[in-house]
Amino acid sequence: MTMTLEVHIEKKLAEFALDLSFSADDAPLGILGPSGAGKTMLLRCIAGLEHPSRGSLVLGGKTLLDTQRGILLPARKRRIGMLFQHYALFPHQSVRQNIAFSLTSLPAAERERRVRLMLERVHGVELGERYPRQLSGGEQQRVALARALANEPQALLLDEPLSALDTHLRSQMEVQLQETFSAYRGPALLVTHNIEEAYRLTSRLLVLSRGRIAALGAREEVFRKPPSVEVARLTGCKNISRARAVTEHMIEAIDWGCRLHVSQLPAGAILNCGIRAHHLDFAEHRSAGATDDNIFPCWLVRSSETPFRITLYLRLHKPPDESGGHDLQAEVFKEKWEHFRDRSQPWYIRLASDALFVMPE
Amino acid sequence: MAPAATDWSPLWISLESSLTATTITLILGLAAASWRERHSGPAMALFDGACLLPLVLPPTVVGFFLLLLFGRNGPVGRLLLRFGASLVFSWPATVIAAAVVAFPLMYLTARAALEQVDSRFLEAARTLGASEWRAFRQIALPLAWPGVLAGTILSFARALGEFGATLMLAGNIPGRTATIPIAIYFAVEADDMRSATAWCAADLIISVALLSGLYYWTHAQGPARWARR
Question: Who is most buried in A124, A228, A299, B108, counting CB within 10 A?
Answer without folding.
Answer: A124
